[in-house]
Amino acid sequence: MTLSCIAVDDEPLALGLVCAFIEKTPFLNLVGRYSSAVEALQGLMTTPVDVIFLDIQMPDLTGLELARVLERSNRGAHTTRIIFTTAFDQFALDGFRVDALDYLLKPFNYEEFLRAASKARHYFELIQRPDPTPVAVQAPAP
Amino acid sequence: MAVTLFSRRYVPLLIHVLGWFLMGYLLFFYQSFNSDIQFPRLFWVRQCIFFGLMVGTFYLNSQRLVPRLLLQGRTSHYILSLLAVIIVVIVLVGCVEFGFDLSTKMHLAFHPDGKGKPKPYGWVQPTLFTIFLVLGISTSIAMLLKWQDDANLRTALEQAKTTSELSFLKAQINPHFFFNTLNNIYALTLIDTETAREAIHRLSRMMRYVLYETQSGTTLLSKELSFVSDYIQLMQLRLTDKVSVTLNTPSPLYDQPIAPMLLLPFVENAFKHGVSALHPSRIHIAIQQQQNKLLLDVHNTVFVEKTPSLEAGNGIGLTNTRRRLDLLYPDQYALQINEHTQAGEYHVHLTLDLS
């Protein structure tokens, strides 16, 4: 399965790095890159995505604020999950309060990135099978 | 040094000895030098006993009664104790006077011809006067010492407070600045190793400055300026082309000592509030020198909506910086902050006298 995703970061180099990591990952499909949360929000109106790699501290609109906006408009419709990317570990708690899928502390390497991305894939695989088929245990014939 | 300490420790003792010497002089010699009257021998015994009682009263009052009663706020207890002491002393002196029958003997000494009548209670008034004098001096000295101790303690506390406050306010750089910069350098290594190398060099210079230069109270203006310039260059790595940053420093520079990381908070503040992802913005920093004066001007674009941009919970805010200036350069600085100039900018102007 392939997950559509966008990356949001106000710092060009940081944004470039996340995008490079996304492009390197076969099951992730980068559909947009934004240098502000406001632009990302506009993009999301037209094309909803599965995963957002979202920086927290950004001018104008922070990642946490964007996450709260999405949480409100998310209900019932397409589920978008968020992976925060930030240098601020004290925001971890806030991150989990807005039900973030994972939390990447800058600077992070590809292995850490991949672990978070795999978590997202696992999550979407689970919700695609609402009633997982029970594993049939075959009793050995007497 | 050892000699001074030694003599200083014995100064109070010397004062006490001198004081008692003076009192003894008044009790024993003053009268006999001024007249050629032969005092009865028992009179000297009485003076000795009285002298001993005064010494006892003095130290009982200053060492026990004042610290344990008066200074503890138990004033009524203190006054009662003093009354008790006075009564005891009077009774004891009275016993001596009457036991030795001194009034008759003294009358004989002054009037060898036997004229007039001895005054059996003539001793009471001078004795009472002396007791009051001794108690008064004793209480005053005890209180004075207490006040002096309090004042010393207050000064020491004040000093300790200032030191700890300064070390708290001491220049610290926001750790997020380091992590975000490291992340950008991490990204740079994949695309532009030359710039990455340069950035690592800058960052290590800054870290060295923060770790070692801030340990001592002062640094050189040239070092502080190159620190600010490194900071700005590294911040520019993190910004888009929408932000234009300019820095003007004096050249040639006249190097002077300055407290480390005094200028950074103003620059940090400009980056904190003057950056938007949507609108173009401008940060202009100018540093000038006028003889011993340092002039810092920071202009940055302001955005109407609150902008918790690049670094929240920034290093040390402007309030702390003002406090630090108060402690380090009292009456030697002027700080003007104009939150909205006519050009729609935030303007900080600092004049600092470094002489």
Largest sheet of chain B: 5 strands, mixed
Give the name of the CATH architecture of chain A.
Answer: 3-Layer(aba) Sandwich
The proportion of strand residues of chain A reads 15-25%
How much beta of chain B, percentage-wise? Answer: 5-15%
Secondary-structure element order of chain B, N to C: HHHHHHHHEHEEHEEHEE
Main β sheet profile of chain A = 5 strands, parallel
Distance between the termini of chain B: 33 Å
**Largest beta sheet: strand ordering of chain B:** 2-4-5-7-6
Gross geometry of chain A: globular
CATH class of chain A: Alpha Beta
Mean pLDDT of chain A: 85
Structural class of the helices, strands and pairings of chain B?
A: alpha+beta
User: The CATH topology of the largest domain in chain B is what?
Assistant: Heat Shock Protein 90
Instruction: Tell me the structural class of chain A.
Output: alpha/beta
CATH level 4 superfamily of the largest domain in chain B:
Histidine kinase-like ATPase, C-terminal domain
Share of helix among residues of chain A?
Answer: 40-55%
Q: What's this entry about, in short?
A:
The complex is a heterodimer of chains A (142) and B (355). Chain A is of the alpha/beta class and 142 residues long.
Task: Describe it.
The complex is a heterodimer of chains A (142) and B (355). Chain A has helices spanning 12-24, 37-46, 63-74, 92-97, 110-128, and strands at 3-8, 28-34, 51-55, 81-86, 102-105. Chain A has 142 residues and is α/β, with parallel strands linked by helices. Chain A has one domain (3-128): Response regulator (Rossmann fold, 3-Layer(aba) Sandwich), CATH 3.40.50.2300. A five-stranded parallel sheet of chain A has the order 2-1-3-4-5. In chain A, helix 1 (12-24) links the parallel strand 1 and strand 2 (28-34). The longest helix of chain A has 19 residues, at 110-128. Chain A is globular, with a radius of gyration of 17 Å. In chain A, 41% of the residues are buried. With 355 residues, chain B is α+β, with helices and mostly antiparallel strands. Chain B has two domains: 2-166, no CATH class; 175-353, Histidine kinase-like ATPase, C-terminal domain (Heat Shock Protein 90). Chain B is built from eleven helices and seven strands. Chain B has helices at residues 2-28, 30-34, 41-70, 75-100, 102-110, 124-169, 175-191, 193-212, 221-238, 264-273, 318-328, and strands at 219-220, 243-248, 257-258, 281-290, 293-301, 333-338, 345-353. In chain B, strand 6 (333-338) and strand 7 form a beta hairpin. Chains A and B meet through helix 1 and helix 2 of A and helix 7 of B.
